[in-house]
Design brief:
This protein is an alpha+beta fold. The chain is built from 13 helices and 35 strands. α3 runs antiparallel to α4, α4 packs antiparallel against α5 and α6 packs antiparallel against α7. The radius of gyration is 38 Å and the shape is elongated.
């Protein structure tokens, strides 16, 4: 217990009063009182006390997510409060991380770790701040958007929960204003904890059109409200008026007939902390709520109930002894009508910070929020599964859900629609005043697509092309390309595929790939260029040493493509020809072109192509190119059907002559037979 020499009686009383408010969790009220006291203390005379007041002010603001927490902690450090309690560094770092000021947060985590090197929360915070940029780059298949139908301006709406297995009915916590007769709004008493209006449970359901209907108070839980005292802003401790109870964070049995929820109501001016209550549904309304006894000590605070799918295990949040620290997640087992043997969750889940808002998916996965595990700042949503390799103890594997669920601010209160990966969660991300909103999320079905175009060697679409696709899962189907040569085929996951593109008058082309191990949707773009059977096909990227016949390394890709074509069409034989331009001696050009054609054949033979399928021919300059529409489009000065012979070339400008000579210098292949080894 700290004892201070007080600068004045009135300030002394105010600080004691603020301390009492802080002790019972009325952080909003306590923070306001600390703020008043701080301005009345002298930095020189009362530095130590002023540092304490600034620190407690920062604690109040941090616990209610007020952005002014960082200023208060800064003031505490100026007053050297860290000499009394280095925890100011830890909580200052957490407040900075909450605001996305990661570099400054790291500095304060490091200052705290100098004295507490084994503190897990500080280690996790520092680690997370250093990984944020990397995490932001990681993708996610989940999609999210604000569920605007549940949110109301300048109010908080959070912790949505489906009413049992019925995904057409939903309940959530909100402090929205209730409309009264005449259109006026009834002002509810603001909370001493958060400074916001008190929270209550609201419910809604879908109509026949699949739209969520009007949002109303949960039927039966709320009777006639108290008198004028309910509307006063002063606490009952001072005014003796009546109060409104706060309700929130609920959970349901699978059949939706039994509800557990968090309930808090000051009695005789004393805040006895939150409790868990239960209510059963009958005739469309909820029955009078009854307290769920979890601890013999009635002063222990419990809340945030979460039932598993079988209804025999209750997860909840408590600051009870035997926990790790802060708010921890506990569980109890059902025996008859009683919940027995409450225990904190095993190592790995709880930290000395806060773990809250548990939820159990139908598949057994535990989801919760924590500001002590490595995260973006504030509360992040985590999922936890049991490591079954440990037989004698419970070990959890924890995973941060990442974006788009988590970000700067608090992300919490997740719920799933049955056994799906769709549902709702709550967050105050992006809200300058820290109001919570409900968001919807969904996991799109993974889709695998093969699409592309079948064209000829000149780039023109082949309208009557056909595609045959064979898969390791037994798939064997045929698809016709559209008139523009395009196609689109849906694929299955974890399958090896072979696709063959064919068209009358063209050689086949084949592609192989698989969809194994994919964690996201993927579209494969597979374009086919079919070579004609009836006319020569120019090989675009075949290069030789200058004035010689050796292939350069730059020719390898084109040659490998020809090997693939020959393997895709095992019954063809080809003539592989080389051509020169009009320059030089005719005899030399003839010999050079023959050796170049032979060099290409030798490459193919070395790679496993049978010699009998290849006929090398050197044409020298005897077969100049005859221009087609594609060549005319590329070089308009060359007319369609014009042979690029010496007579034509010599009439051109020097730069155009060089273009024509370059076109004539080429390597081609054409199909000779399509029946090799068929008979």
């Amino acid at each position: 217990m700290m004892i201070w020499i007080m600068p004045g009686c009135s300030v002394q009383k105010k600080i004691k009063r603020a301390d009492r408010k802080f002790a019972i969790g009325e952080y909003y009220t306590a923070g306001d009182i600390y703020k008043q006291c701080y301005s009345r203390l002298s930095t020189k005379k009362d530095r130590e006390l002023k540092g304490y007041v600034a620190y407690r002010q920062g604690e109040c603001y941090r616990l209610i997510n007020n952005q002014r927490a960082t200023n208060a902690y800064n003031n505490a450090l100026r007053c050297k409060y860290q000499l009394k309690d280095s925890t100011v560094y830890l909580h200052f770092a957490q407040a900075l991380q909450y605001q996305g000021k990661y570099k400054d947060a790291i500095k304060n985590y490091e200052l705290y770790l100098e004295k507490h090197p084994d503190n897990y929360v500080a280690q996790a915070g520092k680690y997370a701040c250093g990984k944020i940029d990397e995490w932001k780059k990681q993708g996610s298949r989940y999609k999210t958007s604000e569920a605007k139908e549940f949110n109301q301006k300048r109010t908080s709406n959070f912790a949505p929960m489906f009413i049992g297995s019925n995904t057409d009915a939903l309940m959530f916590t909100s402090n929205r204003q209730e409309k009264q007769k005449g259109g006026t709004k009834k002002l509810k008493r603001p909370s001493n904890v958060t400074g916001q209006q008190l929270f209550q449970l609201y419910q809604t359901r879908k109509n026949a059109a699949g739209e969520w209907e009007d949002i109303v108070l949960a039927e039966g839980l709320y009777g006639e409200q108290g008198g004028e005292g309910d509307q006063k802003n002063d606490s009952t401790e001072e005014k003796g008026g009546k109060t409104n109870a706060e309700m929130g964070v609920c959970s349901f049995s699978r059949d939706g007939r039994m509800m557990l929820f968090t309930y808090s109501k000051p009695i005789n001016g004393k805040d006895l902390g939150a409790k868990i209550y239960s209510s059963e549904r009958a005739s469309g309304e909820w029955s009078e709520a009854q307290e769920v006894k979890l601890f013999a000590d009635s002063s222990i605070t419990v809340g945030h109930p979460a039932l598993n799918s079988t209804g025999d295990t209750l997860y909840f949040v408590s600051d009870a002894p035997r926990g790790v620290g802060g708010k921890d997640i506990w569980f109890a087992e059902l025996e008859g009508d009683e919940w027995i043997n409450p225990q904190p969750l095993g190592a790995g889940i709880n930290t000395t910070a806060d773990e809250m808002y548990p939820y159990v998916h139908e598949d057994g996965t535990l989801y919760f929020s924590s500001n002590g595990q490595p995260g973006y700042g504030g509360l992040d949503i985590f999922k936890a599964t049991r490591d079954t390799t440990y037989k004698d103890s419970v070990v959890w594997v924890i995973f941060n859900m990442g974006a788009p669920f988590n970000g700067i601010g608090d992300d919490f209160g997740i719920t799933f629609a049955g056994n799906t990966q769709n549902g709702f969660f709550s967050s105050n991300k992006g809200d300058k005043k820290g109001f919570d909103k409900i968001y919807q999320f969904w996991l799109p079905e993974m889709e695998f697509i093969a699409e592309g175009t079948v064209r000829d060697e000149q780039g023109e679409p082949i309208a009557d092309a056909k595609l045959r696709i064979v898969g390791s899962d037994g798939t064997n189907s045929r698809v016709n390309a559209r008139r523009d040569g395009t196609y689109k085929i849906k694929l299955n996951k974890e399958v090896k595929y072979v696709m063959l593109a064919t068209a009358r008058g063209y050689l086949n082309a084949k592609e192989q790939w698989d969809t194994k191990g994919l964690k996201d949707s993927k579209t494969y773009t597979l374009d086919f260029a079919l070579s004609p059977i009836s006319r020569p096909v120019k090989m675009e990227n075949i290069f030789y040493e200058f004035g010689r016949w050796e292939l350069t390394q730059a020719s390898e890709k084109e040659m490998e493509g020809l090997i693939k074509l020959l393997n895709d069409n095992p019954n063809i034989t080809i003539e592989l020809s080389a051509h020169t331009d009009m320059k030089g001696n005719e005899e030399f050009n003839q010999e050079l072109s023959q050796k170049r054609a032979q060099a290409c054949c030798d490459y193919l033979i070395k790679k496993g192509i049978e010699k009998e399928r290849l006929t090398p021919v050197g044409y020298g300059k005897s077969k100049p190119v005859v221009a087609d529409k594609a060549l005319n489009k590329q070089y308009p000065f060359i007319p369609v059907d014009q042979a690029l012979d010496e007579e034509f070339i010599l009439k051109l400008k020097s730069d155009q002559q060089e273009i024509c000579n370059q076109i004539n210098r080429r390597t081609e292949f054409k199909v000779i037979k399509t029946t090799y080894k068929l008979y």
